[in-house]
Amino acid sequence: MTNKKINFILLILFIASVLLGSYQGNRVEFLRECEAFYRWLLAVGTQERLFQSSEGSEKSDKYVDMNLFQKVSEVAIPILKENENTKDLIDDTLSTPENFANIIGNISNDPIIWQLSTRKELAELRKEFLKSLREKKIQYNRDITYAEAQASGVNIFNLFFGFRKIAASLIWLEVDRYWHQGLLHRMVPLMRTCVALDPNFVEAYLIGAWHLAYNATAKLPDTPQHLKKWSPKYNACVGEKEAFYYLAIDFLKNGIRNNPRNYKLYFDLGFAIYKNKMNDYPNAVRYLTEAVRVPHERWVRRQLYICLEMNGQYEEALKGWEDYKTRFPDNPVATRFVLRNQGKIYEMKAQELLKEAEKINDEQSKNEKINQANDYKMQAKEIWKKLSTEEGDPYGDYRLSLMEAMDLYNEGRYLESVAVLDKARWESPSNFDEASDLIIKIKQEANLPLTVSEKKAVLRKIEGDRCQGMPEKVPASS
Amino acid sequence: MKTLLDSIKGPWFIAVYTWREGLRRKTLVGFLILSLLVIFGATFMTSFINQATVGDVTTDMSLRLIKDICVTAISIFGVLITIFISASVIPTEIENHVIYTVLSKPVRRYQYLLGKFLGAQLIIIMNLCLMGGLFFIALYIKQRILPTLLLWSVFLTYFEFLIVSALTFAIACASSSSVLPTIAGLFIYITGSLTEYLKDVYNRSGQTGEWFDSLVGYIAYILWNVLPNLQRFSLKTKILELQPNDPPTDVLIPQLVLYGLIYAASGYILAYWIFRKREV
């Protein structure tokens, strides 16, 4: 073979390999674009399912996420309906976006969503998503580009060489330094830059939210309700402390959108912020339920059941604790909480029967109801005794005192009832507020004099939950 | 069969010889020691920076920092080792006149070149294994779970280096000194990491309506398509912080491996094309 021929063959081979490389590069690029689309679907699905209904009226028109998600769901749902394996996932009572968001919400459907993200039918919408991404019209789970990174002052060198993660970690060290210097105002924008550089930096979301909700508010006084200002963004009255709580909530919600399969973010939002800081048990239950839907540590369930109990969902809490006890028989806490919830269920049933009895005119039926209620009360007392003696839980004593106080109250022995409650609240400080509220109620009914702090509590209640700028009709939020 | 074995034997012996020679290079050993020190030091560094955090989050944070520092160290020192070794295997042989002795033996040029290329790959793989191994141990000590995802990360890093190595090797075939190919290798790595930016240029082009603006856009688009894009291997860092049940990764890894192999093949073809024209 002549030299020329060999050179020609080599040239052809080189061009062919480069073209093949280009083709393969485009395949990789296609997969990367599908991956970006898939992650965006997870983020917007989470937004639609968990946050959209609870957000206030201040929404930006700048972004197209929700409109695009609706379009995607309109294409995706018929595809899923046609498929034998996936048609059962669809709930016809829900709207298309809600349906699609619910399917996305289930971790076991991830491969289905990934398959959908790569399908030809969604090619146009994928293009629209990428175009909107370039035009910065996408709000959730968008990767920042070079220009944005440069504008935010991030060392561009780190980004160019693909070391975005280390850039994010180095910025996080700055956040830590500012924290030690007490420069909180500098921490927040840096924290945002940090998670913009690396949206999967879960620890940054967790520690950032912890700084905001706990450390930043540690020395702040509580804002009286009438001095708080109404925030349309959050649909809530916001004081100094609450402003930080909501910042922390926003930060964690952003983390959840970017990492919807990480239980830690749901857990911190439900437990650390809603339960511990805001005493908002319905929301605590909501996010802790989400935390247990994805792979999680065993203690996450315990917090969910505790929050269910605090939210008055005793039946669900009892079921949960019984299941937990079966799974982890060595757990010392489960038995106590099973008893607590059983006791509360009996008490609740007794109260319901007594209420029903009040409405009945027929003496015989009335007495039957009262007897039934007394039976439940006896069963509840047995459980509280068991909790106190066998499990050594002071909560059992507290509930016994509470029941005794209520019996005395029903007999018209108000002073004795107040005395029992007063003793109980000091012996069980974790239930101080509940007992104090009952004392006020009994004193008011019996025309007994109130103490100064009790008078203040009554005044606070009269003022109600209203704050500055609060609309007469509060918009509904879930 | 015998001919096939003979045609493999030759390159293999040259590869082993190149590997042994590579072990004696002080620059490479220096880089390796430095990288090992950084990886080892990362575990100590994290002890000083977590005072503000509590509980499990502290462990997660230090783990993350170890991962980030180690992956970056492997990338930086690994690519330096890759460039230095790929840039020097051929020019050193020419400088020492060893190439004349080897080529006077019954060894074809492509066999010699293949042997040298494989030898360079053996050194790169050995260095990656050493760095990855130490990183593996550091992570295992910290989290007490075998960090298997790290193996995938190191595996992908190798294919990124393979592209840089093949293209640097091709330039080294045209040079009689290792300085020019080393600089070119660094340039290849930087350009490869910036290829993604070309797409941004293409997307922003055509806004003024000027023909030159559109032309720049088209050139950027062609270059973006043709040049290897090393940013596509960013999965190597993502993979360490994977979310549970992450389906895209399984699909991307084989595609990236194929991508690396194709560009390595084109680099090798270019190297052979240049080398066979050369008068040695």
Give the topology, please.
The complex is a heterodimer of chains A (478) and B (280).
Chain A (H helix, E strand, L loop, with lengths): L2 H49 L13 H18 L13 H10 L4 H8 L5 H12 L11 H6 L4 H5 L3 H18 L2 H14 L4 H14 L13 E3 L4 E3 L1 H19 L4 H13 L5 H13 L4 H13 L3 H14 L4 H28 L3 H27 L4 H17 L3 H14 L4 H14 L6 H12 L15
Antiparallel strand pairs in A: 1-2
Helix pairs in contact in A: 1-3, 1-4, 1-11, 2-3, 8-9, 9-10, 10-11, 10-12, 11-12, 12-13, 13-14, 14-15, 15-16, 16-17, 17-18, 18-19, 19-20
Chain B lengths: L1 H22 L2 H20 L9 H42 L1 H7 L4 H35 L4 H25 L6 H26 L6 H16 L8 H4 L8 H31 L3
Helix pairs in contact in B: 1-5, 2-3, 2-5, 3-5, 3-6, 3-7, 5-6, 5-10, 6-7, 6-10, 7-8
What do you see in this structure?
The complex is a heterodimer of chains A (478) and B (280). With 478 residues, chain A is mainly alpha-helical. Among the domains of chain A are: 3-134, no CATH class; 155-198. Chain A has helices at residues 3-51, 65-82, 96-105, 110-117, 123-134, 146-151, 156-160, 164-181, 184-197, 202-215, 240-258, 263-275, 281-293, 298-310, 314-327, 332-359, 363-389, 394-410, 414-427, 432-445, 452-463; strands spanning 229-231, 236-238. A two-stranded antiparallel sheet of chain A has the order 1-2. With 280 residues, chain B is mostly helical. Chain B has one domain (2-275). Helices cover 81% and strands 0% of the residues of chain B. Chain B contains ten helices and no strands. Chain B has helices at 2-23, 26-45, 55-96, 98-104, 109-143, 148-172, 179-204, 211-226, 235-238, 247-277. At the A-B interface, helix 1, helix 4, helix 8 and helix 10 of A face helix 3, helix 7 and helix 10 of B.
